[in-house]
Design brief:
Largest sheet: 2 strands, antiparallel
Number of strands: 2
Number of helices: 28
Strand order of the largest sheet: 1-2
Helix content: over 70%
Structural class: mainly alpha
Length: 507
């Protein structure tokens, strides 16, 4: 009886062990379907090879939906020091780039490879087009216009005295002065003055105006006052004239003529013209020394001047021959150019203008006093020039030319030259920028970025790509103890069942 119990128990244990061992093996084997005579052998392939796709999908679903979720991955990026590692990586790369002796273009070429030329051409074209389109915008034109206007206003707010003290103005002043003096002495100016004077005289000759109507009253009054104030000088001048030999002789001849024509010859024989002249001359000189006589002479001259002014200008000029008139005009022009418009006059005119300009608080005030709407005029001029330049094809060509040259120059610069003396600052800026960018990326875009990975699909595809033997090896490596325990549990259960079944049968 005991032997039966032992045998049955051992047999049950062997059967239980083999059954569980075989069941575990059938999970993985055979790897492929087996057929005999075209009939599929049951339980082939094994459970795991047969259901590999479903298992892969389930595992991928579990990992993607419950383990490596978007929220989990984003949280991991925030809390696992990834930001600091990224920041350190950026700093290291920036330092490497700064210390390299290659050009900026070569560094970009390393990054983009064969697309470098296309990228550079695209960048040049894009930059040039942006500049050109910006130039053509009304907003840009208004800004340029305002910048120029404000700059001009700033200069116009200065005192005109600042301009008068500049060396450039002094040179200009000297040049203008020289040019005016040269023009005054030129034949061109003399001809112009002669023509203008002749024209005015011709107008007077054909008019009914008197000299009094033509000559300004202020000039007439000035002349009369001058004559009256100079009465003594005029009287003394008359005395000097009487002492002149030629005038003496003419007066003597006149006295003789008068005596011969108006007196009886008998009486005239007893009279001496020289004696009479001496008497008359003595009386005249005596009278000319009197103040009343001097004033009366001045009044007489002014009365005579009034009589002349009452005459018509046409009578004076029409009585003159063309030659005499031209000669008089020429002499008048010479008098004007030599005695009136002299070099000193130019200097005084310029000084007077400078004084008036210098007394203004600003150049703008000076322009305002001249009733010039300089701002609107300037705006119109600037806008016309800006519109012309913005639509000019040559400007577009210049923009492309300078963008091409400038970008080539930048690309050919060595990185160590570009960053020289600014290494620490650039590194700090790049580091801070990378930190901010990483934070923004993780906060705003990391979820979408991770979702685009489709972790479920990645896990599923990866499991499906495994060989069944590799999956078996992984599972056995992970659960070898558990599977061994299950096998021995089968043996234990078989042992118990064999023992109990034999024991019950013997009763």
């Amino acid at each position: 009886m005991v032997q039966k119990l032992i045998f049955a128990s051992i047999l049950g244990a062997v059967i239980g062990y083999i059954t569980n061992w075989l069941a575990i093996k059938m999970l993985f084997r055979p790897h492929h379907e087996k057929r005999i005579g075209g009939i599929r052998v049951p339980f082939t392939p094994g459970l795991i090879p047969k259901e590999q796709g479903r298992i892969a999908k389930s595992v991928g679903e579990a990992i993607g939906s419950h383990l490596l979720t978007n929220e989990t991955m984003v949280e991991a990026l925030k809390t696992n020091g990834v930001n600091e590692k990224f920041k350190k990586w950026v700093e290291v790369k920036i330092l490497e780039i700064q210390r390299s002796s290659i050009s900026l273009g070569e560094q970009i070429k390393k990054i983009v490879g064969t697309s470098y030329e296309k990228l550079v051409c695209f960048a040049k074209s894009k930059i040039a087009n942006i500049i050109i389109s910006t130039i053509k915008k009304d907003n840009f034109k208004n800004q340029i216009e305002n910048v120029i206007i404000n700059g001009v206003k700033k200069q116009l707010s200065k005192s005109p005295q600042v301009l008068l003290e500049k060396d450039n103005y002094k040179k200009l002043r000297e040049k203008i002065n020289v040019e005016m003096k040269n023009y005054k002495d030129s034949q061109e100016f003399k001809d112009l003055l002669f023509t203008l004077t002749s024209g005015k005289i011709n107008e007077l000759e054909n008019s009914d105006k008197t000299l009094e109507e033509i000559i300004p009253i202020s000039i007439i009054s000035t002349i009369k006052v001058y004559v009256y104030n100079k009465n003594y000088d005029i009287s003394m001048a008359i005395k000097d004239m009487l002492k002149d030999d030629k005038i003496n002789q003419k007066i003597r001849d006149a006295i003789k003529g008068m005596m011969g024509s108006n007196l009886n010859p008998m009486i005239a024989m007893f009279l001496n013209a020289d004696v009479i002249y001496e008497k008359i001359s003595s009386v005249i000189e005596h009278e000319l020394d009197k103040e009343d006589t001097q004033k009366n002479i001045a009044l007489f001259i002014n009365d005579l001047f009034d009589k002349i002014l009452e005459g018509k200008a046409s009578n004076i000029f029409s009585s003159m021959s063309k030659e005499a008139k031209d000669k008089s005009i020429k002499q008048l022009c010479e008098l004007i150019t030599e005695k009136i418009i002299d070099n000193k006059l130019f200097d005084e005119i310029i000084k007077l203008l400078e004084l008036k300009i210098g007394n203004k608080e600003s150049i703008e005030e000076m322009l305002t006093d001249l009733d010039l709407d300089y701002e609107q005029t300037l705006r119109d001029f600037i806008r016309i020039r800006i519109n012309y330049l913005s639509e000019n094809k040559k400007i577009e060509e210049k923009v492309y030319f300078y963008v091409d040259g400038s970008l080539n120059k930048i690309l050919n610069m060595n990185l160590d030259q570009i960053t020289a003396g600014k290494e620490t600052k650039i590194c700090k800026i790049a580091s801070n920028a990378s930190e901010v960018m990483f934070d923004k990326f993780v906060t705003n875009k990391a979820g979408d970025f991770i979702e685009a990975f489709n972790i479920k699909k990645i896990v599923e595809d990866k499991i499906n790509s495994f060989e069944v033997s590799f999956a078996e090896e992984i599972i056995l490596e992970i659960a070898s103890k558990e599977l061994s325990a299950i096998t021995w549990l089968g043996a234990l259960l078989g042992f118990i069942m064999g023992f109990l079944s034999t024991l019950i049968a013997s009763i």
